[in-house]
Structures are given as C-alpha cells and as structure tokens.
Design goal:
By secondary structure, the chain is an alpha/beta fold. It is built from seven helices and eleven strands. The strands form two sheets. A six-stranded mixed sheet has the order 1-2-3-4-5-6. The chain has a five-stranded mixed sheet with strand order 7-8-9-10-11, with no helix packed on it. The chain starts with 6 loop residues before the first strand and ends with a helix.
Length: 263
C-alpha cells in the first residue's frame, strides 16, 4: 500500500477513502466530495461500497458547515464505486446521476458528453471516456485544473480494460483525449483509487506507453503460438502476482480482440 489516506487536496476537493483495500482497489475507493468555497451545496463523486461507516463519513464531510448534498455522480458501473449509491442517496436526500439508468436514484438523470454541471458555484464538465468500462466518464473540474478519472487513470499502477464490456480501442482513444488536455486545461488527476497525480500529462503519457508495450508483448506471444488469454497472461504477466492474473485476462482478451485474434 502507498500510505494514501485521502483528505483535502484543494479548497474544493476532499477525498473520503473507503475501507475496502485490495489488490484491485489499491488503498480503497476514493469518494470525492466537491464544493465551491462559498457554496452551500456539495457534489459527491462515487459513493463507494455499501459500508454504513463510510457513507456516514462521506455525508458528514459533504454536509460540513451546514452544506447540503446537491448531487451525487458515479463515474462507472463497478460495485466498489456504485454499491453504496442508493443508500447514500437516501441518507443525503440527493439525486444520483449516472450513464446507466440502473444507477440513477431520486430522479437523477443521465450524463451527457460535454455537459456542464453547475452546483452552487461549483462547475464540472462531463467527458465520455469509455474503455475501462463502456459507461466510464471523467469529470473536468476547471477551477482546480483537475480531472476526476474514476478507474480510467489510477493513482498508481495501471487499470484493466474490463473485457468484454471495456474495449481497448475506446480506452486508447480516451487516454489520447485526456492527454491532449494537458497541461492546459488539465494539470492534475484526482483518481478513483490511489493518490492524487500532480503531473497529469506525465501520468497519462505513461499509460499510453504502457499499453503500447503490452500490445507489443501480446503480439510476440501470439507469434510464439499463444492463442488464449490465459496462455498470454502466463507468458506476458509472469512477473505479476498470480492473484492478479484473472484481471489481467480481461485486459489481454481486450488486446487480442483489438489485434483480431480469437481469445
């Protein structure tokens, strides 16, 4: 573990770290509480798991100083980000907006590419960034020159392309889009897991380089006779903890699909 514990990262953004650490979630899921310094309403990004203690901590932070929760947003479908959303909506009496209708609560609507969301002085922009999942979005917080990336970019390591829902071509296009936004208007990443990345351009460039390197390794594995995701993982991810191999198989399956090789 990196020692990341969350907390305030700017005058507008505070991370409440969920108690669900694992090899996939790193230190835990980052639930982001955003509010304009002078505003009376907050926005909560990714309520996290259905853990009453965590949700109470998020609510306490989001309503600090007599604020109320104006809106809840989920960045993508995975349970470590969405499982607590319905319960949090009930606690906060606030709508939940999401790409997928099943995660919307209390009249919250969808999320539209390019949409500007304004909540009592806090301004966000929705960026469609599919790839990790088909419904993944990134939120631009212009006042902080920051992007809240969910699992598209993590605070350390790299993310999986969750095949078959996630597609590598989409993911690469999303990374290219985010990289093109650095250093202006974006300089920092507020990720869904792990610590804040203060050099967004470098971090995203690393992700793109890593994906190309993995593609080259998968091409070499296919040339050596590997055909299944498991065979490729055993060769290409031999230096990775085997506990992560099932997740690596998702990314490899996405790469094989991208290369036109049956997985």
């Amino acid at each position: 573990m990196s020692g990341w514990t969350g907390g305030a990262v700017s005058e507008r953004a505070h991370c409440v770290l969920a108690p669900n650490p694992s090899p996939m979630t790193l230190d835990g899921t980052n639930t982001w509480v955003l509010a304009d310094p002078g505003g009376r309403q907050s926005v909560v990004i990714d309520p996290g798991p259905l853990d009453e203690g965590h949700l109470a901590a998020v609510l306490a932070r989001a309503t600090e100083g007599d604020r109320s929760v104006g809106l809840v947003i989920v960045t993508h479908r995975h349970p470590d980000h969405t499982e607590g959303a319905a319960r949090f909506a009930e606690l906060a009496q606030a709508p939940v907006r999401a790409v997928e209708p099943e995660f919307r609560e209390r009249g919250g609507g969808g999320l539209v590419e390019g949409e500007r969301i304004a909540v009592d002085g806090l301004d966000l922009q929705v960026l469609a960034t599919p790839g990790h999942t088909s419904d993944s979005v990134t939120l631009l917080l212009p006042a902080d020159r920051a992007i809240l990336t969910g699992d598209t970019v993590l605070g350390r390591g790299t993310t999986v392309v969750a095949h078959p829902d996630g597609k590598l071509a989409d993911y690469l296009a999303s990374l290219e889009r985010l990289h093109a936004m650095t250093p202006e208007p974006v300089s920092v990443v507020y990720p869904g897991h792990g610590a804040v990345l203060p050099h967004a351009g470098e971090a995203i460039a690393f992700y793109l380089k890593h994906r190309q390197e993995r593609l080259d390794q998968v091409r070499a594995a296919v040339a050596a006779g590997d055909r299944t995701s498991r065979q490729v993982v055993e060769r290409v991810y031999a230096d990775v903890d085997p506990v992560l191999w099932p997740y690596a198989e998702w990314s490899v399956a996405a790469q094989l699909e991208y290369l036109g090789v049956g997985a």
